[in-house]
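Hi support team,

I've been running sequence recovery on a batch of backbones for a student project. Most finish fine, but this one hangs at about 90% for roughly twenty minutes before it completes. I'm not sure whether the input is malformed or the queue is just slow. I've pasted the structure tokens below so you can try to reproduce it. Let me know if you need the job ID as well.

Thanks,
M.K.
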């Protein structure tokens, strides 16, 4: 009889262990899925970050070009105004000299 009891107890332990194995496999599978999703998300975020860096670099370069173009435009305008003032000053000087003679 004790053999029957031991056998029954061993069968219960075996069943308990089988259930634990199933639970461990399910938990492992769930962790694998979560890890896969997390890795995909990380990869997606990395691509997004890289694209943001490219976009930011492009915007910086565009802004730099715009600033340079505005500086050139300003310098051209100032040079033109300076030349106009020199011509006006020359005309005034010539008129003053002509008025003195």
């Amino acid at each position: 009889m004790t053999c029957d009891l031991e056998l029954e107890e061993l069968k219960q332990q075996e069943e308990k262990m089988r259930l634990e194995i199933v639970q461990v496999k399910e938990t492992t599978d769930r962790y694998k899925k979560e890890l896969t999703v997390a890795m995909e998300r990380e990869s997606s975020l990395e691509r997004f970050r890289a694209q943001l860096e490219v976009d930011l670099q492009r915007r910086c370069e565009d802004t730099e070009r715009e600033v340079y173009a505005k500086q050139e435009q300003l310098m051209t305008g100032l040079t033109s105004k300076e030349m106009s003032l020199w011509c006006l000053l020359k005309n005034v000087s010539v008129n003053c000299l002509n008025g003195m003679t």
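--
Follow-up from support: It reproduced on our side and the slowdown came from queue contention, not your input. The chain has one domain: 1-76. No action needed from you.
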